[in-house]
Amino acid sequence: xxxxxxxxxxxxxxxxxxxxxxSISFSVTRGEIFGFLGPNGAGKSTTIKMxxxxxxxxxxxxxxxxxxxxxxxxxxxxxxxxxSQKFSLYDDLTVVENLEFYGSIxxxxxxxxxxxxxxALSLAEIDEDRxxxxxxxxMGIKQRLALGAAILHDPPMLFxxxxxxxxxxxxxxxxxxxxxxFSEEGKTIFVxxxxxxxxxxCDRIALxxxxxxxxxxxxxxxxxxxxxxxxSLQVENFIRVFERISMLDFIRDSAIFGSDIHILCDEGVxxxxxxxxxxxxxxxxxxRLQRIAPTLEDVFVTNARKxxx
Length: 309
Prior knowledge:
By secondary structure, this protein is α/β, with parallel strands linked by helices. It has 11 helices and 14 strands.
């Protein structure tokens, strides 16, 4: 029987007339890396804060390790690790002093606290910076320190809210290597992100927009389940071309990715011939068109437009 660490049903959070999270339902299984993927303002952080017992839902229900997110908030806080977007570190303290402070909040002391601090310093690869003042540290080290503080009390589940926002791609990759090591210990990880490539690391992801979940599955199944063929078009004046071909009847969807245009159409359509004809009418005879595997961006855009978003 599958064991769920998080169960949510019709969870809703309103701020006045604004609905930040709109009647979402999902579950997270023990030991998986579960992701919430969506743009800023999609409701990702609000969802995490409700699950962590920081704010109350307006409607709906949720449980974390069987504990009710409305009635048992303090128990939940003692059994999870939470890393917020702003890291919640004390800039005027050293790395070790920050860990000692957070350890005391979790009720750790003596040998247990020292052992867990050494574990966190090692896992987060910040041992060499243990006596450095936090205010002078690079963003990547602050990020790993915040993770170390979140796992001091050895929680079975870790909530990471946009943990790599503001750091460069190399730091993001290094951070995910640490997450994998934590996951290998059997811990459950719930992570929010707006980076498509980061969502690929998750076992399952929920695509979130305007407070609602528009799709939920593993990255591979979401991509393989896209009901269209996907092509990449490379051409000069791609913005002008995009405006023209987006109106063609045989194209189900299209979007700009960098300087390429992704085209989605039904299987069997003579895409190259039809694109060549349309571009020829624009006086363009030089272009490159190739069929590609669907990306998460393709999945996200297609699902968002399906819901009229």
